[in-house]
Amino acid sequence: MSVRGQRSNTNREVVRTECRPGCGACCIAPSISSPIPGMPQGKPAGVRCVQLDENHLCQLFGDPRRPAVCHRFDYDPELCGDDRDQALERIALLEHGTA
Predict the structure, then answer these.
(1) pLDDT digits (tens, 9 = 90+) for 5-56
(2) How many C-beta neighbours within 10 Å does residue 80 have?
(3) What is the pLDDT of residue 17?
(4) Where are the domains of the chain?
(5) Are the CB atoms for 49 and 61 separated by under 8 Å?
(6) Quick check: 70 and 32 in contact, CB under 8 A?
(7) CA 27 to CA 61: how far, in whole Å?
(8) Which of 5, 36, 39, 66 is most exposed by smallest CB count within 10 Å?
(9) What is the CA radius of gyration of the chain?
């Protein structure tokens, strides 16, 4: 969703990381209790957000109607893993553990 810096193992340089294009795991795996255009009651965990397009990109990115929780969701290499499947699995596990 946004770019953020992370310290490398040497703690000297900042490595920039950002969302994996076409992933969309954060728009599928977690539940969202905030209203979303097209989903006024939010969405349950594991349900694809109606605002996620066929390329797994948020149609509300940069739109003020985008829920604050979505805006705050940020790429995290530990959570998002090496690929979309790992991201879906890890976010689902986190969702299940906090339900």
Answers:
(1) 443 444 545 444 678 888 999 999 999 999 999 999 999 999 999 999 999 9
(2) 21
(3) 60
(4) 18-98
(5) no
(6) yes
(7) 12
(8) 5
(9) 14
> Which pLDDT tens digit goes with each residue over 67-98?
999 988 888 899 999 999 999 999 999 998 88
> Is 67 in contact with 34 (CB distance < 8 Å)?
yes
> Which residues lie across from 7 on neighbouring strands?
14
Q: Angle at CA 70, nearest 5°, toward 66 and 73?
A: 150
Tokens of 69: 């929780």
Tokens 């209790």 found at: 33
CB atoms within 10 A of CB 45: 15
**Degrees, nearest 5: CA angle 92-93-96:** 85
Cβ–Cβ under 8 Å, residues 70 and 58? yes
